[in-house]
């Protein structure tokens, strides 16, 4: 592996904030449509058409982009809220679990708790996950793409 640190940018999001905003938005859509004096079938159609807007707003408001820096001895994961440094010799393996709309990336450590982050692909430009994957494999870190 190169001695120069490699930097990768991933489109991640704050999963709890995303789920809260999405559920509240859907609840408000339902409550709002129940108050509108139109036929029930039109209420249902309008509510279903508003769900993509709720999804878009939830994703845009909970975006938390992260920067991953890989060097000879460490993997550093940073976002606007915190920075975590993992010594490479303490990383047991990394799992990339594909989910609809993104990925759940789990860094399992020999000592200490597992670190989880949610990568988002919806309403985002392409990020550096394929390059990060190759760099992790080149660094002899067990990487499972499930």
Average predicted confidence as pLDDT: 91
The N- to C-terminal Cα distance equals 25 Å
Low-confidence stretches: none
Strand order of the largest sheet: 2-8-7-6-9
Q: How would you sum up the global shape? A: elongated
Counting DSSP E segments of at least 2 residues, the number of strands comes to 9
Largest sheet: 5 strands, mixed
Radius of gyration: 19 Å
Range of strand content: 25-35%
Helix-strand pattern: EEHHEEEEEEHE
Q: Roughly what percent helix?
A: 25-40%
**Helix/strand structural class:** alpha+beta
The total count of helices amounts to 3
Describe this structure in words.
By secondary structure, this protein is α+β, with helices and mostly antiparallel strands. The protein is 36% helix and 33% strand. The protein is built from three helices and nine strands. It has helices spanning 15-35, 40-61, 129-138, and strands spanning 6-10, 12-13, 66-70, 74-78, 83-87, 91-99, 102-109, 115-120, 143-145. The chain has a five-stranded mixed beta sheet with strand order 2-8-7-6-9. α1 (15-35) packs antiparallel against α2 (40-61). The longest helix is centred in the middle third of the chain and has 22 residues, at 40-61. The chain is elongated, with a radius of gyration of 19 Å. The mean pLDDT is 91.
